[in-house]
Design goal:
By secondary structure, the protein is an alpha/beta fold. It has a single domain, classed as TIM Barrel (Alpha-Beta Barrel), CATH 3.20.20. It contains twelve helices and ten strands. An eight-stranded parallel β-sheet has the order 1-10-9-8-7-6-5-2. A two-stranded antiparallel sheet has the order 3-4. Helix 2 packs parallel to helix 12, helix 7 crosses helix 9 and helix 9 runs parallel beside helix 10. The chain is globular and about 60 Å long.
Length: 400
Amino acid sequence: MLHSDTRILTTHAGSLPRPRRLTELYAARVRGEPVDPAQLAAEGRAAVAHVVAKQIEAGIDIGNNGEQPREAFFLYVRHRMSGFGGGWSRRLFADVARYPEFGAWKAAHDALGNTISNTESVPEAVGEVRYLDRAAVEAECADFAAALASAAQGPDGRRFAEPFLTAPSPGIIATALRNRWYDTDDAYLAALGEALKVEYETIVARGFLLQIDAPDLAMERHLSFQDRPLSEFVSFVEKVVATINRALTNIPPERVRLHACWGNYEGPHDCDVAMAEVLPAIRQARVGGFVLPVANPRHAHESRCLSAFAGDPDKLVVAGVIDVLTNFVEHPEVVADRIERVAQAVGDPRRVVAGTDCGFDTSAGRGRVAEDVVWAKLASLAEGARIASRRLFGGAATKG
């Protein structure tokens, strides 16, 4: 995992806006309509090339494929694994249920359009979960590598300093795609860990940094565990982290970063668990970096919690300093101030990377930020990182 002794590097949490035509194809496939696999693959490759170029242009150092070849950040596993079928609808987030007028507004907004995120149900585990073969993930890696090889240099002569790809946590699949097959939820979680191990190892073997997306480590407190004691939720987090660690047995910790959040949706979020309550369990993950949101209005104050990493000299902290649910373009000085607060908490700017709170389009068509604003936000992120670098590193700050 790339460290810098001279400046604050920039990244983001993974998903980027998908073209309308690609989103329409994913939605059609979810509805069970015939979709030409060759056309879907071609649209995906074109979208990857586009987002790679736009990230480089914006000044992103550690970039990815924008999750363009996937319909959603974790639902794509139903095409790569056995055992999923049927469908069910999850309960409301606790904060959404708490505000019925907001809930009605959100439902009306979500009903607009026909996107992946607006499908009424998600699959269940109705059979043995196994990773079917590596063809899909290998193709995703190959297409990303090809886009990287053909990408033009950015305005300052740079391309990605390090590329990454994402894969979901076993915990988010276990909670969202409920268990209808295994005798226990623990057995289901273990099976998911074994299946995802294939994807994790393939991504790293192809030379990419692996990011594990685990919103379950915070979000499920106000979803699956909203009526249960906090201690039960913390126990769940510990089980998921232990499962992730087993899946990473053959991967060096420095090749993995873990993203946790409270859910990428606009809402009150006043039922969210405090970062301090779950961070000790999350920090047990055998990874080299942690991607945590501290830009949004509900959790910005928790940047002080990142002082927990002050004694971990081998850990990177990727701090979300850009909110992905508003079309406000953060001023670079605001971004710089946020980075500096994180660096002060961590105690070493060399272990801080500037990122986004979450992905911009975690399910195709779900994104709340217009695409041109997304690129403006990422450009502001890069400029804010340059400002913070001059303040934190002084004369040592460079573009390299």
